[in-house]
Design brief:
The chain is an alpha/beta fold. Helix content is 40%, strand content 18%. The mean pLDDT is 95.
Length: 348
């Protein structure tokens, strides 16, 4: 079996390489370390790419920009992958507004290129696209909320389990990142429906884990732990620091992608996060991290929130569990944080 993984140096991409490498897949990794351009040296994944090339004998790497369709097509023709995990993208909600064209080209055009190569070369191979919950824009903010001492929660029975896939994507502010990812999300569905491809969009919450290279503009838990351990001043943007996110370990994401590849469906959409059990606010996360590191976080509260940011978001996992009943969350929020702390303490 051969799997093509775009963004193979990123959090989910690199975890997938290790995961499917252990399953003896031939892995075709594509990553041109665009993160270094987006986020500076702190966002570079060259060290991770080097690690994959050295550790995995069945791994082959290509420093390719997914916007280059001709070169991408050649790789598809050469390897004819049995599955595609499209993880590459510009991942920052905040940065997108400063690089609108680059954000669109990487997220929308890059995804279109991956889909078109799949359609023309390996139309029977399943495609998993790492979308985002930002496709819902700020519509979650229009739901009834209840304020507690350290967090917000959805009020009433309808959204008790969180946001499901039926929430509207219209009449809201998405952020430019959300808009480019939504375009890619819709194209992924359309290639599934129009050309009968097995595709799915994973509308992720906070995907995280110890191999996450968190920076201020991307990677909530990872960067928060980094700021605490490395004593970097941390900015809290708006909503009293009570904004809530659900967090899912990258290993659990890999486990679902394996399940989808083994039993693919056409043009599906799934909200994939840690669910209510793995949700936390910024204030709650800070308390948890400080308890474990015994280090006081240096923080500053900025009253203005980020444009299009969610006040509260945790994923309703009912649909994904119904379609794939053997899959479940296996790593708790507390264990995630412990792993991330260990990783940042070990990094220079």
């Amino acid at each position: 079996m051969k799997i093509l993984i775009t963004g193979s140096g990123g959090l989910i991409g690199s975890e997938l390489c290790n995961y499917f490498g252990a399953l003896k897949y031939k892995i075709i990794g594509i990553d041109n370390n665009q993160r270094k351009f987006f986020f500076g040296p702190g966002g570079s994944v060259d060290w991770k790419i080097k690690y994959l090339k050295e550790k995995l004998k069945n791994y082959e790497h290509f420093y390719l920009d997914i916007r280059d369709k001709k070169k991408l097509f050649k790789i598809f023709k050469k390897f004819k992958p049995d599955a595609i995990a499209h993880c590459a993208g510009q991942p920052s909600h905040d940065l997108a507004a400063k690089i609108i064209s680059d954000d669109f080209e990487v997220n929308s055009l890059g995804t279109l290129n991956v889909l078109d190569c799949t359609h023309k070369v390996v139309p029977k191979s399943p495609v998993v696209f790492l979308s985002t919950n930002k496709v819902y824009g700020d519509n979650p903010n229009k739901l009834l909320l209840k304020e507690y001492a350290k967090r917000w929660e959805f009020k009433g029975a309808i959204y008790k389990k969180g946001i499901d896939e039926k929430l509207s994507i219209d009449n809201c502010t998405h952020s430019f990142f959300g808009a480019s990812k939504l375009s890619a999300d819709i194209y992924t569905q359309e290639y599934g429906n129009y050309f009968d491809l097995n595709t799915c969009c994973l509308r992720g919450g906070c995907l995280t884990g110890p191999s996450h290279s968190g920076v201020e503009l991307h990677g909530f838990l990872s960067y928060l732990v980094k700021a605490n351990v490395k004593k970097i001043p941390y900015n809290i943007f708006g909503y009293k620091g009570k904004q809530v996110r659900d967090n899912i370990h990258s290993l659990d994401v890999c486990r679902f992608i394996e399940a989808f590849i083994e039993s693919p469906k056409k043009a599906e959409v799934y909200n994939l996060g840690g669910g209510y059990e793995n949700s936390c606010s910024i204030l709650e996360a800070i308390n948890l991290i400080e308890q474990k590191t015994k280090i006081k976080l240096i923080s500053k509260y900025i009253k203005k929130n980020r444009v299009g940011d969610h006040i509260c978001y945790y994923s309703n996992l009912s649909k994904i569990k119904k379609h794939y009943p053997k899959w479940k969350i296996s790593i708790s929020l507390e264990e995630m944080i412990e792993q991330i702390i260990f990783e940042w303490k070990s990094r220079k």
